[in-house]
Design goal:
- By secondary structure, this protein is mainly β.
- Helices cover about 15% and strands about 40% of the residues.
- It is built from three helices and 40 strands.
- The strands form eleven sheets. Strands 1, 31, 32, 33, 36, 38 and 40 form a seven-stranded mixed sheet that branches. Strands 2-3-6-7 form a four-stranded antiparallel sheet, with no helix packed on it. The protein has a four-stranded antiparallel sheet with strand order 8-9-12-13, with no helix packed on it.
- Helix 1 runs antiparallel to helix 3.
- The relative contact order is 0.15.
């Protein structure tokens, strides 16, 4: 290759290099670089509120893949040895074939079921047993620590002919099967929709009221060491069915509401030492209710009353707490499951939660199969701090299906522990990063850096300038070649 060819090659390389460099210089010079001249990249000192942990009482919907059939008036108890909730029976609707001459049609009929379900780790498991326990609704069921088993009493069964039959049978659940308790000399008469709770101070299950073949009852019974005893009580407590009952931490028994032709809003206290029923006459109360549920939430030392049907025959979904310290009711005013009554509810001691299942809606008489957990959830703040934007720019964050926009330096979210994905909302002409953030048990911050997007106009301007340089370089190379000649 002669010297002229080498010179031409060098010139071409120089021209290309200068062109590319020119495009880059012009584009980035005119488009600008990320700016923090407005002092936006600052560290925000969290407020006292943000630094504090927030506790929220919540009903959390459990969308497990397997669930029992829709039922109402089933019964539920925590089987402590296995840290699980046991649910039995209930009323449901089934298709029944009706033969009329040559035609066959179907209709919905009520049926009591005898299935047993186990709930643990947010999963339902159907227990397969060879037990002869019949389908029942309106039974009572309690864990009995002295025997490490569950005691079920009473209820009513719908026979194949559609007849309602009350039972006085006592059943024992040991974790695997139901066994009838035989040889009882004394026992409550056959009844359904009685109320019961375990009292630790007398090591006994206390049973009250219910619907018997001779009408409503106001009798009080105790169950201890596989035997029943009728208790003589004082106090003028009326006969009742569908009242909510639970034990206080001191072992005394609280009973609320119920139905005896009218709906009750009375709060009764049974002193298990003197066996005296006392009407507490509390004016601020959940209202006239029956077939609601009452359970002790030990994590925060109160009793939770949920649901029921009111004096208008309408199901409710209010949540009330009863303090065993102040002996008073308080409306919790929290989001709750859809209104229903006849749900079953139990404490799940291992998780400090209360489990709620099923029920009947009065809106369309629909049997329900949802599962909820009542929890005291812990929340902490995460604060997103931005940099790179001019003052008063509108930006935002989308996290956990919620979008928050602002013109300030920070955006805050209140989150439970876990890992969350977030996306940024940038103003026109800027871009910001998205990603994941992991919450633990304390306040955290996350920096968000915005960058200015280079304008297409300035890219074009730089390209034109580069082309001009190429043309000038080409002209220069032609002149140079003529000089060499």
């Amino acid at each position: 290759m002669n010297s002229s060819g080498k010179s031409n090659g060098i010139m071409k390389f120089v021209v290309i290099a200068i062109s590319l460099l020119t495009v880059m210089v012009f584009a980035f010079t005119f488009s600008g670089t990320p700016s923090i001249s407005n002092g936006k990249a600052i560290t925000v000192t969290p407020s006292v509120v943000q630094n504090s942990t927030v506790f929220k009482y919540q009903w959390m919907n459990d969308t497990s893949s397997i669930a029992p059939q829709p039922v109402s008036n089933s019964t539920m108890a925590c089987f402590t040895p296995n840290s699980e909730v046991v649910m039995f029976g209930g009323m449901t609707m089934v298709n029944e074939t009706i033969v009329n001459g040559k035609s066959t049609s179907y209709m919905l009929v009520k049926k009591t079921v005898n299935t047993t379900w186990i709930y643990n780790s947010k999963q339902w498991t159907k227990l397969t047993t060879s037990s002869s326990i019949p389908g029942l609704e309106g039974s009572t069921m309690n864990f009995y620590p002295r025997g490490d088993d569950i005691v079920l009493f009473g209820g009513e069964n719908i026979t194949s002919g559609g007849k309602m039959v009350l039972t006085s049978q006592t059943w024992i659940f040991t974790g695997f099967a139901w066994t009838p308790l035989k040889g009882l000399v004394v026992a409550p008469s056959a009844r359904a929709f009685a109320s019961s709770a375990y009292s630790s101070s007398i090591s006994s299950i206390v049973l009250f009221g219910g619907n018997t073949s001779s009408g409503l009852s106001n009798s009080t019974w105790t169950f201890k060491d596989n035997s029943w005893k009728r208790v003589t009580t004082t106090g003028q407590i009326p006969a009742m069915e569908g009242a909510a009952m639970e034990s206080l931490p001191n072992g005394n028994i609280l009973l609320y509401g119920g139905f005896n032709g009218t709906y009750s809003d009375s709060t009764w206290l049974l002193n298990v030492t003197t066996m005296h029923w006392k009407n507490l006459n509390l004016n601020n109360n959940p209202g006239k209710l029956a077939f609601s549920n009452l359970k002790y939430f030990s994590f925060n030392n109160f009793l939770l009353l949920y649901g029921g049907v009111n004096s208008k025959g309408v199901a409710t979904n209010s949540s009330w707490m009863f303090s065993p310290v102040s002996m008073s009711w308080k409306n919790m005013n929290i989001n709750s499951p859809s209104p229903a009554y006849g749900q079953s509810m139990s404490v799940l001691e291992a998780n400090d939660t209360i489990v709620l299942y099923g029920g009947l809606s009065t809106n369309n008489n629909e049997y329900i199969n949802y599962t909820y957990q009542f929890q005291n959830n812990t929340y902490n703040w995460v604060e997103f701090q931005e940099s790179g934007l001019p003052g008063n720019s509108t930006w935002g964050i989308t996290l956990n299906s919620k979008t928050v926009k602002t013109t300030s330096n920070e955006v805050e979210f209140l989150l439970m522990a876990g890992t969350y994905g977030y996306t940024t909302i940038a103003p026109s002409g800027y871009t910001g990063q998205s990603g994941n953030i992991t919450m633990y048990a304390s306040f955290i911050t996350q920096s968000i850096s915005f960058s200015k997007i280079p304008s297409f106009f300035y890219y074009t301007y730089g390209l034109i300038a580069g082309i001009v340089i190429v043309i000038l370089a080409y002209i220069g190379s032609m002149v140079y070649r003529k000089i060499l000649k």
